[in-house]
Amino acid sequence: MALYITDECINCDVCEPECPNGAITQGDEIYEIDPNLCTECVGHYDEPQCVDVCPVECIPKDPNHVESQDELMEKYETITAALG
Question: Fewer Cβ within 10 Å of end Cβ, the chain: N or C?
Answer without folding.
Answer: C
